[in-house]
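User: I'm preparing a small set of examples for a lab meeting where we compare how different chains pack in three dimensions. I only have the primary sequence for this one, and I'd like the structure in token form so I can line it up with the others. Please keep the answer compact; I'll paste it straight into my notes.
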Amino acid sequence: MKTYGYVRVSSRDQNEDRQLIAMKEMGVPDCNMYIDKQSGKDFNRKHYKRLVKKLKENDLLYIKSIDRLGRNYEEIQEQWRVITKEKKADIVVIDMPLLDTRRGKDLMGTFISDLVLQLLSFVAENERINIKQRQAEGIAAAKARGVRFGPAPMPLPEEFHDAYQLWKHKKLTISEAADKCGMARSTFYNRARQYEKATSKNI
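Assistant: Understood. Below is the structure token output for the 203-residue chain.
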């Protein structure tokens, strides 16, 4: 029997130390620690896939909490089935002692474990949906306040003001004005519109 640990954080700037400390307390050797820095929306994760391939009958897998395994209700259920039924390995969710497949191998124990898993999987996915909704609402509110998303526009070339004035007073065609600024016609026109709005606000 080998003991493994699976650690996941959602992005590269998040810290996995808390999970690693918990794994060490459970006696998981460093060589059997698998870490993904990736969203939990699905199981298409490099190190998780390697871990599942390694698992054999009677091996033991530790995870800190069910949302570290994943956040998709149906996929969590499926992966749990693969690990415990196909691989015949055991799983221990450190933060939820009821989710310890080493205990209660009888019908009642399995029923309780499955029931708790379904509930926690649902909570994990519901939180994922709520996070996406809060992000969408935050973006919509920011846009309503005039916050711009995406890369900042390139600064206007030094020649732009003069070219704009000459074009505005019909002394240059739009093609000539764009060439003077080293821009495409459509870019010059769009920047001219923005320039007009900005200058009109300052008047």
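A couple of notes for your slides: The beta strands are 3-9, 33-37, 60-63, 90-93. Residues 3-124 form a domain with the Rossmann fold fold (CATH 3.40.50.1390).

User: Perfect, thanks.
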